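lol ok so funny story. i was supposed to be doing the assay writeup but got distracted and ended up predicting the structure for this chain instead. priorities right. anyway since i did it might as well share w the group, maybe its usefull for someone
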Amino acid sequence: MPDFTLPPLPYDYAALEPTIDTLTMQIHHDKHHATYVTNLNAALKDFPAITEQSIEVILINLDTLPVPDATRTAIRNNGGGHANHTLFWEIMTPGGSKTPTGALAEAINATFGDFDSLKKAVNEGGAKRFGSGWSWLVADNMGALSVVTTPNQDSPLSEGKTPLLGVDVWEHAYYLKYQNKRVDYLAAWWDVVNWDKVAERFAAVKG
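and the output, tada:
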């Protein structure tokens, strides 16, 4: 059966300095993300037909998978962790636009008023998310935008939404540099978002 694999970080560990420090990137990718992949493969070892699907398809159909509840929970936690982090590394790829442009910018302005209002909504969601989780910019299947938060490693895919951008507010994502100052991390994080990558995801939803 094909196992899920840890995708290599598409840039150097130090590429997001000073916003995200090198050691955090090493631990976050090589340890945390790797563990989600290992645990996902373990959860699915007796369900080879499921592993033939993409992780996105699995999470979209999470509630109807023919698996025991304990396995479903393991997929939610570890499959979500795998999908969420794969997106996270991609949208922070160095280079590219530092602000939204084109159709994505138009949709953001129409939905939120302006770019700063979007950032405020995502930051407030991340700051208010109790414990661990994510704050997201998502689109529905018609391309309508909204900001949502999810606990733990839950994916918006399981709620019928496509994540375009997500910020990880688990402490392992920021604690070495920002300690308990999650708000400072959220404010700084926008400096490393590659809006070309976010726009690609939006264009795929819009078709």
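Residues 102-206 form a domain with the minor pseudopilin epsh fold fold (CATH 3.55.40.20). The mean pLDDT is 96.
back to the writeup now i swear
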